[in-house]
Design brief:
462 residues, alpha/beta, single chain, Aspartate Aminotransferase, domain 2, four-stranded antiparallel β-sheet
C-alpha cells in the first residue's frame, strides 16, 4: 500500500474528526458568511507527484477553496429552488459515503431494499396509491427524462412498435403538449431523440402559467394519434398548478400519457391548506419529484414514479451475464440509465425517519409563511413591484420603473451578501425570484432580506 494511504488508514478516526470539525465550522458560518462570495477563484495548481495525505488536502481546501463556497446550504439562499440538508439527512449522506454501496442488484440487495422502503414512505407522503412504483434518480432533470422515456415506450406500444428496440425514429413525429414546461422537459426530449421541436405550447389562462383546459381540449380533438401531456404541479416562476384532475379526464377521453412535473410542488400535499393544489396527482402516468429541494436532502437526489414499471424495464433493462433476470420485480439496474447507483435513498430515509410527516410539514408551512411575508414586504417597498400572487413558496417581482435586465442584475448583486436571488422573465418583464425551501429559513431571514432589498432600491443617495 502506498505509504500516504497506509498512514491515512492508520490515522483514519483522527482524520475523520478533523474533517467533522471543518464541516461543523462551515455550517456554523452559514448565517454570517456572504451568501454568494464575489472573490476571484484561486489560480489552478498542477497535480503533485506526492500528495501529502488527507491532512494536507484538508488544509489546502480550507485555505484555497472553502472561502469561495456559497452559503447554498444556508437560510437566505433563495436562488433556483434549493433546500439544504437537515441534520438527519446530512448524517445519512455521510454514512452513504462511508458504506459506499452500489444499490442496484439483488445479488447485494440491502441497499435496494432500503430504497424500496424509502420510496414507499415518499409515496405515502405525497398521497400516491400503491399503483405507483418509484425509483431514486439524481435530480428532477433525470426524473423527467425517465418519465418521458417511459412515455416514449408507451407511444410505441400504442402505435405497434418497440421503441427500445427500434429507436425513436420508428414513432414518426411525436407531439408533447404543455403550458409552461420546465426547461428540463425540452432537454429530456432532446436526449430521448424526440427532439425539442416535439414540445408544443398550450395556451395558458390569462395572467397565469396554468394550462387553459378548454384550449387543450380543442388541440387534442384536432390531433390524430396518441400524444404526451406534461402538466405542472408548481411552475418555477410563480408556483402555478395545472388542474390535474381536468387533465387526467382529458387523458382518459383522448388516450394520452399524463406526465406531471411536481419537482417541488408535490410537497403541497403535506399541508391540508394546500393539498387541493395537487388533487389528481395520483392519476398521473408518471411523476417527477425532486428531493434535494423541499425534502432538504443533499444534492443528487430525486424520485420518479410511474404506473407502468413494465414499460420502464423495457426501456432500461441491462442484459449482462453478471446480472439476474428481470423477473416480476426488476432490480434497480433495469429501471434507470445508471448501472452504478449510489445509495442516495439513505439520506432521505434518515430525514423521513427522524422527523416524520409532521416535521416535514412544518418545514413546508414555515417556507410558505416566509414567502408570503417577503411578498408583502416587496409589495410595500417603494420601487419594487410584485408580479404575481405568492401561491406557495416563490416570490416573483421586478422594479416598479424601468425594469431592465441590467438593473435587475445590479439589484441582485447589491443584495448578494445578504441573499441570493435568481433572474427570470415573467409577463414579458425581467424579474427576480426568491424561492423558499430551506429548513433553516426563519422570520429573521425574511426581515433581513426585505431590509437589504429596501436599502438597495433606495440607493446610496438615500
Amino acid at each position: 500500500m502506498h505509504p500516504e494511504l497506509a498512514a491515512d488508514l492508520d490515522q483514519l478516526p483522527a482524520l475523520l474528526e478533523e474533517t467533522r470539525r471543518a464541516a461543523a465550522a462551515f455550517l456554523a458560518s452559514l448565517d454570517e458568511r456572504p451568501v454568494v462570495p464575489r472573490a476571484d477563484p484561486p489560480a489552478r495548481t498542477p497535480l503533485a507527484e506526492r500528495g501529502g495525505g488527507l491532512r494536507a488536502a484538508l488544509a489546502e481546501f480550507g485555505e484555497r477553496w472553502e472561502p469561495g463556497l456559497s452559503a447554498g446550504a444556508g437560510p437566505r439562499y433563495f436562488g433556483f429552488v434549493t433546500g439544504g440538508a437537515t441534520p438527519a439527512a446530512l448524517a445519512g449522506d455521510w454514512l452513504t459515503a462511508a458504506a459506499d454501496q452500489n444499490s442496484n442488484s439483488s445479488l447485494d440487495g440491502a441497499g435496494q431494499q432500503l430504497e424500496r422502503e424509502t420510496v414507499g414512505w415518499l409515496r405515502e407522503l405525497f398521497g400516491l396509491s400503491a399503483a405507483h412504483a418509484g425509483t431514486f434518480v439524481s435530480g428532477a432533470t433525470m426524473s423527467n427524462t425517465v418519465g418521458l422515456a417511459i412515455a416514449r415506450q408507451w407511444l410505441g406500444e400504442r402505435l405497434g412498435v418497440d421503441v427500445a428496440e427500434d429507436g425513436a425514429a420508428a414513432l414518426g413525429r411525436v407531439r408533447v403538449l404543455s403550458g409552461s414546461a420546465h426547461s428540463s422537459v425540452a432537454k429530456a426530449l432532446s436526449v430521448l431523440g424526440l427532439g425539442r421541436g416535439a414540445l408544443t405550447r398550450v395556451p395558458v389562462l390569462p395572467g397565469r402559467e396554468a394550462v387553459d383546459v378548454a384550449a387543450l381540449e380543442r388541440m387534442l380533438a384536432e390531433h390524430d394519434g396518441p400524444c404526451v401531456l406534461v402538466a405542472n404541479a408548481g411552475t418555477v416562476n410563480t408556483v402555478d398548478f395545472d388542474d390535474l384532475r381536468a387533465l387526467a379526464d382529458l387523458r382518459d377521453r383522448h388516450g394520452c400519457w399524463l406526465h406531471v412535473d411536481a419537482a417541488f410542488g408535490a410537497f403541497a400535499a403535506l399541508v391540508p391548506e394546500h393539498a387541493a393544489l395537487v388533487a389528481g396527482l395520483d392519476r398521473a402516468d408518471s411523476i417527477c419529484v425532486d428531493l434535494h429541494k423541499w425534502l432538504n436532502v443533499p444534492y443528487d437526489s430525486a424520485v420518479q414514479f410511474t404506473r407502468r414499471p413494465d414499460l420502464q424495464a423495457e426501456v432500461f433493462r441491462n442484459a449482462a451475464a453478471y446480472l439476474g433476470p428481470l423477473g416480476e420485480h426488476p432490480d434497480l439496474v433495469h429501471l434507470t440509465p445508471e448501472n452504478s447507483h449510489r445509495l442516495r435513498a439513505l439520506a432521505a430515509w434518515f430525514t423521513l425517519r427522524a422527523y416524520g410527516r409532521a416535521g416535514h410539514r412544518e418545514i413546508v408551512e414555515r417556507c410558505v409563511a416566509g414567502a408570503r411575508a417577503l411578498g408583502e414586504a416587496v409589495a410595500g417597498t417603494p420601487g419594487l413591484r410584485l408580479l404575481a400572487p405568492v401561491r406557495l413558496n416563490v416570490v416573483c417581482f421586478t422594479l416598479a420603473e424601468d425594469p431592465t435586465a441590467d438593473r435587475l442584475a445590479a439589484l441582485a448583486e447589491a443584495v448578494a451578501d445578504e441573499a441570493f436571488l435568481t433572474p427570470t422573465h415573467y409577463a414579458g418583464l425581467p424579474a427576480l425570484r426568491a424561492a423558499f425551501s430551506n429548513w433553516r429559513t426563519t422570520d429573521a431571514d425574511v426581515r433581513r432580506t426585505a431590509a437589504a432589498l429596501a436599502r438597495a432600491v433606495r440607493g446610496p443617495e438615500a
